[in-house]
Amino acid sequence: MKCNQKHKLMRISFIFLIVLLFVRGYPAEENTEEETVIEDFFICRTCGNDVSVANLAFDKYTPLALSATNHSFTETRSVLIQEVQNPLGIRFHIFLVKQASCAKVHPWTIKSTWFPGYAWKVCVCPKCHTLLGWMFEPVESATAEQSFPSEAGFYAIIFQNIITEGFVNSLLMKEKALRDN
Ligand SMILES: *[C@@H]1O[C@H](CO)[C@@H](O)[C@H](O)[C@H]1NC(C)=O
Ligand SMILES: [Zn+2]
């Protein structure tokens, strides 16, 4: 019960953060904070920590993608999933979001970037330290003081390492239906 309440509090502060970002991102629109409906949560597949929300997903092609497909996270939200490969030959399916929750890590690097003009660093879950993806920041602003991407940057999330809350809930509903029968 106590644990549940703590999670709820964390969730509320996370929503608040996201809403703040929305308002800052679109100053022309008024009262955005009251109108924003969270479409779905992306959560860490390993520990269930909030990573981002479907509303913050956006599409940007990398010229280095091995393949690309559109994936529907929700009825209204289709997101570009691109397959990329690192110098070790390991392949990942990634999608992009404007904001995500990552632990603070070491400096930016420009070596082997998937997005020309952008430096990167890894995004690991702040709670369980699983690799969630990478953070990207324009090379000019990728300084030591810039720990996380600015508004000009973004996050690439590994599709296999997150799960949506909508999907988790659908599983719980199924399980409950099975138990009730
Ligand atoms: C994904 O959908 C967008 C918009 O509907 C379309 O322009 C694009 O070609 C699609 N991409 C792929 C890889 O199917
Ligand atoms: Zn985690």
Automatic annotation (TrEMBL):
Entry-linked CDD domains: CRBN_C_like
Domain CULT as annotated: residue spans: 39-166
InterPro entries linked to this entry: CULT
Keywords: Signal
UniProt signal peptide: 1-25
Protein name (record): CULT domain-containing protein
